[in-house]
Amino acid sequence: MAGMQLDLGPLKEPIGFIKILEWIFAIFGFATCGGFSGKTALSVKCKNTNDTLLLNATFQYPFRLNQILIVTKETCNQTVETHLVGDFSSSAEFFVAIAVLAFLYCMAALVLYVGYLHIYRDGNRGPMIDFVVTAIFAFLWLVSSSAWGKGLTDLKYSTNPETIIKNANVCKGFAECSSAGVSGMGSLNVSVVFGFLNMILWCGNAWFVYKETSWHAPPEPPKQDPGNVADPQPPQNP
């Protein structure tokens, strides 16, 4: 039958239960990274006016820091401007894109398992495609999580007020600068953790999907229809 046959049984099996975990962990992955917003700040004491200023810059996903201005032309009556350093959008967007795609694939796979499992298992093509896609996602989670982990390390360095002071021209003679704090990045650390947890889940899921394919257990030969078996011939007398 090609119609939908609702069966929640696969959700109790590893192939379905792990897919639910992957769906949930993918949500946490792109939510903790894509929803982050932080702030870094400097305390600036101008030498020419003796004014003390608090300069801050807000950074958020996708972390194109080189487009964020922290020192304006009006600072200490100088015409210099200073942007934050670095563009970490490629690793962040790659990580979030993999998380969103994994989220969508998990939903599609769960619909297939719950409603169309009879079609999924009626042949070899469905499990084989599922296995290949699952293995690809496991590899992509490894690559994207590693890239984003490196990008996060560089992001922390670039938003550190001490690093900004080294690059700000206003702090090189016009004013005395000191750190005024930077937002914690705990949620971004969690996003990297969820990335590697997703990689582990998808690797484990690949094994259970592999067991559904004919590569693990070749299909049984078709049983012969008893109606097509020829009747035994009676022995002939010599």
From TrEMBL:
<keyword id="KW-1133">Transmembrane helix</keyword>
<feature type="transmembrane region" description="Helical">
    <location>
        <begin position="20"/>
        <end position="38"/>
    </location>
</feature>
<feature type="transmembrane region" description="Helical">
    <location>
        <begin position="128"/>
        <end position="148"/>
    </location>
</feature>
<protein>
    <recommendedName>
        <fullName>MARVEL domain-containing protein</fullName>
    </recommendedName>
</protein>
<dbReference type="GO" id="GO:0030672">
    <property type="term" value="C:synaptic vesicle membrane"/>
</dbReference>
<dbReference type="Pfam" id="PF01284">
    <property type="entry name" value="MARVEL"/>
</dbReference>
<keyword id="KW-0812">Transmembrane</keyword>
<feature type="domain" description="MARVEL">
    <location>
        <begin position="10"/>
        <end position="214"/>
    </location>
</feature>
<keyword id="KW-0325">Glycoprotein</keyword>
<feature type="transmembrane region" description="Helical">
    <location>
        <begin position="188"/>
        <end position="210"/>
    </location>
</feature>
<comment type="similarity">
    <text>Belongs to the synaptophysin/synaptobrevin family.</text>
</comment>
<keyword id="KW-0472">Membrane</keyword>
<dbReference type="InterPro" id="IPR008253">
    <property type="entry name" value="Marvel"/>
</dbReference>
<feature type="transmembrane region" description="Helical">
    <location>
        <begin position="94"/>
        <end position="116"/>
    </location>
</feature>
<dbReference type="InterPro" id="IPR001285">
    <property type="entry name" value="Synaptophysin/porin"/>
</dbReference>
<feature type="region of interest" description="Disordered">
    <location>
        <begin position="218"/>
        <end position="238"/>
    </location>
</feature>
